[in-house]
Write a structure and sequence with these properties.
The protein is of the alpha/beta class. Helix content is 31%, strand content 23%. Helix 7 crosses helix 8 and helix 13 packs across helix 15. The chain is globular, with a radius of gyration of 24 Å. One of its GO terms (molecular function) is acetate-CoA ligase activity.
Amino acid sequence: MSNESLANLLREERRFAPPADLAAAANVTAEAYEQAKADRLGFWAEQARRLTWAAEPTETLDWSNPPFAKWFADGKLNVAYNCVDRHVENGLGDRVAIHFEGEPGDSRSLTYADLQREVAKAANALTELGVQAGDRVAIYLPMIPEAVVAMLACARIGAPHSVVFGGFSADALATRIQDADARVVITSDGGYRRGKPSALKPAVDEALTRPGTENVRSVLVVRRTGQETAWHEGRDVWWHELVDRQSEQHTPEAFGAEHPLFILYTSGTTGKPKGILHTTGGYLTQVAYTHHAVFDLKPESDVYWCTADVGWVTGHSYIVYGPLANGATEVLYEGTPDTPHQGRWWEIVQKYGVTIFYTAPTAIRACMKWGDDIPAKFDLSSLRVLGSVGEPINPEAWVWYRRNIGADRTPVVDTWWQTETGGIMISPLPGVTETKPGSAQVPLPGIAATVVDDEAREVPDGAGGYLVLTEPWPSMLRTIWGDDQRYLDTYWARFGPGQSATGVAWRYFAGDGAKKDDDGDIWLLGRVDDVMLVSGHNISTTEVESALVSHPKVAEAAVVGATDPQTTQAICAFVILRGSASESEGLVEELRAHVAKALGPIAKPKRILPVAELPKTRSGKIMRRLLRDVAENRALGDVTTLTDSSVMELIQSKLPTASED
């Protein structure tokens, strides 16, 4: 989007000032910025009091061996107790914790008392299987309540879990089992996806034939679909046979705040996945605080829904640990937004009276493509806060989201954070921030983030560069599992350590490009790998995508850079047209001219391919590395994580008709 177009949009929308019904909370939250600025560690120590500690911490941060941080290190607590038991003890046992909605239409609701019983039984079952504190447990499940129960049961007994997204292949699962040296795998016969059962157990069986998985002694299997399931006697055990017969009583043990809580693997395009290690006290403090502050949570009345999968960090932090630590009521949905019909999400919002809705820009753009008339059929008046997560959201999608889902009255919090950061780091706050479409805007209280140039110098307002974090934060990753050197090399070597006014400064490089606008607000530009070098100019794929989507005929776009002998890289775009638009003669040139007008001639794509669909994972993320393979005429990489691998065949078939200069 050009600066002129954005300015017009902001004027039209009056810059989305905080709505009056959230103003009551504004003073308290606004004061947090000043409190954190004056005493950052004191601020986080106060947030830690949101939790129930078996031993109160006396030290907030140990930064004596940077960049290896320890938060609240002398404190002890149990995460599952904080997420479940204490709410029951406080008289909230009858409050619904989870409204589960299965894709086929089955549903059930678990109160906090129900959840306490189920977690206790699962913890007893894991103990019977020989799992002890420190043992790793791999979890490979669909979006069903047992996934949440399994994670909490592991936390209850101090066994770090490694949740593996249910769409990953047997090879990807095996790699994660090997690296974590998991002793138990929790899976299911399958789950429902796009109208039919999808098997999971076969991938586990195949993974456990790989070298390095020999230490797995048990596979605990949830019966979800009723599919025929191969069985390995002596290793496999049904969840309903083992867990259901366990005692509902279990005494949680307190663990040190730096006890490992989970390992979550990031899947890079090449090389061994990185096992991101998160520990207990600091992580839970930050996800509880941010879930409360960013969404202006009122747990006694809100119904919260995050559409992520528990296999990703968003599911860990903002489906399981943050919401449940806050005693929230939430929705857990198994399926996709278009199954069995394209209004499925809005049907669920209407059914449960969802008040806070948190989803990904990719999903928002898909809903845009389906048309404004679909959400208009449902009563969405219960919604009061909308959230965006996962990638930079283009302003056009932001505005559509607020207008068509939020009825022009609901604030949008556009959040930036990562698997590595553990919790939300940059976001506007409802009731406080005058929001801007497409900008994550300002670091949260207690977070120190800025944009620097190649020499690690902070850039002035109006300039761009690299997003860095300049102070440790409670939910930060502690290391890469089993590889401290890779942790140092990957996250801390690019911009540090260096000298500052107060001594040696360490700068965590997030891997994202960003810019500051004239107000000093932060705009994310995507991964630096997605910044293209075209004739000596750095051009963000996100900005080109946003320019394309601002055209009335384009619903969604993905842009990649392809090697070019003349310009270093050439801009290649793949676009999905809106339902009413046709692939007419001259369309490609029309779109190229539109981008040139919005961003300048240097940003005009060399190639634009209209396609029926983009390659997406089951979590909704676009697999741009596969599009780079197509653009550079390479053999395709691994497509096993795609929702529909045939999409790539359709895209490749379009290549002969590509428009090139």
